[in-house]
Write a structure and sequence with these properties.
The chain contains eight helices and twelve strands. By secondary structure, it is an alpha/beta fold. The chain has one domain: Alpha/Beta hydrolase fold, catalytic domain (Rossmann fold). Strand 11, helix 7 and strand 12 form a beta-alpha-beta unit.
């Protein structure tokens, strides 16, 4: 564990590969960090293990408010941890990795709201990046607006909100078609939900048990759904892979097609994972996601 001590303190981890074909930085989504995603083992193997086997060093970190990183004060006022705040945190992480890898460019692998953070960063800082992967990204809908139209969350909003294990479970079942097979085994979810609740030492004292979660990312998502673009896709010039689950209503086929058309990258690809929803990296079809991402990163690294 590497603690980046400039405030807020960020927890950074690395799993190095023998082949050392490049450095992949995982950018997590709005409700759980690196230990519950890229490093979480299902049937004894994590996505980081698969990336290592393909030859990539894997770096995972937690934004402030998640995992082992520093926590924001809880108060009424402004939702904590929104896009403008975390941009500086991602920049610190990229700089820290490049200080340790001889300043070579890195690859960003980002999920959901984390894709918004990574896409904004890629548009602003292309020189330090070799590739960008967005899986299940949340996109602006309805207006084609430019980032300057973003309206921040209203003052007086809560900084955090409680998130239960049941609310997380709903995310694995709501998009599965009637009669479709369960995408996250009960035994897997039991282990994962226990690890999720353990990220907040006060979770068990709430009824029902819940993790206090920064509200800024959800404010960003509401802005996106209201048609407020938080970045310009046309500014993204690095090779980009967009992956969506065929059953994902949060990143629909229309959403993916519109983002693909808007991307400024000359080299851009779209992959659809059958039988997968918004949390495909933890689901039964996760191997298909791993394979698609590994193949793209290998092409980008050569």
């Amino acid at each position: 564990m590497i603690n980046l001590m400039e405030q807020p303190m960020l927890a950074l981890q690395v799993r190095r590969a023998a082949a050392d074909l490049g450095d992949v930085i995982y950018v997590h989504g709005s409700t759980f960090g690196a230990d519950l995603s890229i490093f979480f083992q299902l049937d004894g193997r994590s996505w980081a293990d698969e990336l290592n086997a393909a030859g990539f060093n894997v770096w995972g970190f937690d934004f402030a408010g998640y995992g082992a990183s520093a926590r924001y004060p809880r108060h009424g006022g402004t939702p904590a941890g929104g896009l403008e705040d975390v941009q500086a945190q991602l920049r610190r992480v990229v700089c820290a990795v490049r200080e340790r890898n001889g300043s070579r460019p890195v690859m960003l692998l980002a999920h959901s709201w984390g894709g918004t953070v990574a896409a904004r960063y890629a548009g602003d800082h292309p020189d330090g990046l070799a590739a960008l992967v967005l899986f299940a990204p949340i996109t602006a809908r309805g207006s084609g607006s430019e980032p300057g139209n973003y309206v921040p969350a209203a003052a007086g909003s809560a900084s955090h909100y409680p998130l239960t294990a049941w609310a997380q479970y709903r995310r694995f079942i709501d998009d599965v078609p009637r009669g479709g097979e369960q995408v996250f085994a009960e035994a897997h979810f039991q282990a994962w939900s226990e690890a999720f609740l353990a990220t907040d030492p006060d979770a068990a004292g709430r009824m029902p048990p819940a993790v206090m979660t920064p509200a800024g990312p959800q404010a960003d998502v509401r802005a996106l759904r209201a048609g407020q673009a938080l970045y310009s896709a046309s500014n993204i010039s690095v090779p980009t892979l967009l992956v969506r689950g065929a059953w994902d209503s949060a990143c629909s086929g229309v959403d993916a097609d519109e983002l693909m058309a808007a991307l400024g990258s000359v080299h851009k690809e779209l992959a659809t994972i059958e039988g997968a929803t918004h949390l495909m990296h933890l689901e039964s079809a996760r191997g298909l996601l791993y394979n698609a991402v590994n193949a793209f990163l290998l092409r980008s690294a050569t």
